[in-house]
Amino acid sequence: MDSQHHPAATAVRARALTKVYGSGEAAVRALDGVDVDFAAGAFTAIMGPSGSGKSTLMHLLAGLDSATSGQAWLGDTEVTGLDDAGMTLLRRERVGFVFQAFNLLPMFTAAQNITLPLELAGRAPDPAWLGTLVATLGLADRLTHRPGELSGGQQQRVAIARALVTRPDVVFADEPTGNLDSRGGAQVLSFLRTSVRELGRTVVMVTHDPSAAAYADRVVLLADGRVAGDIVDPTPESVLAGLDALRTLDEVH
Predict the structure, then answer these.
(1) Exposure on the CB side of residue 44, measured as CA atoms within 13 A
(2) SS3 of 45, please?
(3) CA–CA separation, 146 vs 156, rounded Å?
(4) Most exposed: 16, 125, 207, 238, by fewest CB within 10 Å?
(5) pLDDT of residue 25
(6) Per-residue confidence (pLDDT) for residue 2, from 0 to 100
(7) What is the distance between the alpha carbons of residues 245 and 50, in angstroms, rounded to a whole number?
């Protein structure tokens, strides 16, 4: 009965999700009543002009920030209804993060950085899953290296392995190629896509780069804190066209 209302194929969803910073005349409506669903086992990109609310949306969905009003769910769990302790548990047990800054600990080896979330949760790594991640991400000969001995692309692949090691329901990636050259960026994006297609993960990525977005299965366009478009099977050209349409709309208004 419940599954009719909340199909298992939806990993994350938002209803009337709103975030207002400040109050009175200084209030800024960063997110303005967003309704959106993100499919499980899919790679979705969120795009939009600067200030469109894309990072705010990700932070609310991932439990990194609290909503002013509206609701967000991770599976059947209402993220917007959790207290601080519940939010911490959700982030640790069910969500993985990949940031623009790789956020690796410099004194730890690649292997130690990858298994860190499990250490913090007091759990042992699953050797088979860890082996699959290391092989898929091409890190087997880098595990004893510290971050300072790795290229940017390798560091970000370590960060992706760390995000996936707990088998989270969803991996949120915020501008994951922002600090990488084009080759490193292309590698990271193809590994994110591989983690979805071959490892069955769910990835939601914020990016400003149409070429990066084209690696996704779908692009959700935001403008002025609202959903402004949806592109399935994106190409760099279709994403650029979608962004251009948003700018034209903005100029008309």
Answers:
(1) 23
(2) strand
(3) 13
(4) 16
(5) 87
(6) 41
(7) 15
Q: Tell me, what's the pLDDT at 252?
A: 59
The answer to whether residues 177 and 207 touch, using CB atoms and an 8 Å cutoff, is yes
- Torsion sign (Cα): 111, 112, 113, 115: positive
**Which residue type does 157 have?**
R
Both tokens assigned to 252:
């008309």
What is the rounded CA–CA span in Å between residue 78 and residue 61?
10
Structure tokens at 76: 């059947």
Strands (E), the chain: 10-21, 28-39, 43-47, 69-74, 77-78, 95-99, 170-174, 203-206, 218-223, 226-232
Could you give the CA distance from residue 253 to residue 245 in angstroms, rounded to a whole number? Answer: 12
Contact of 96 with 172, CB cutoff 8 Å: yes
- The angle at the Cα of 209, spanning 205 to 215, to the nearest 5 degrees, equals 60
Q: What is the mean pLDDT of residues 132-148?
A: 93
Tokens of 67: 């909503």
Q: What is the pTM of this model?
A: 0.90
Residues near 187 by Cβ (< 8 Å), separated by ≥ 6? 153, 157
- CA dist 7 and 12 (Å) reads 11
Q: Residue 87's pLDDT is what?
A: 87
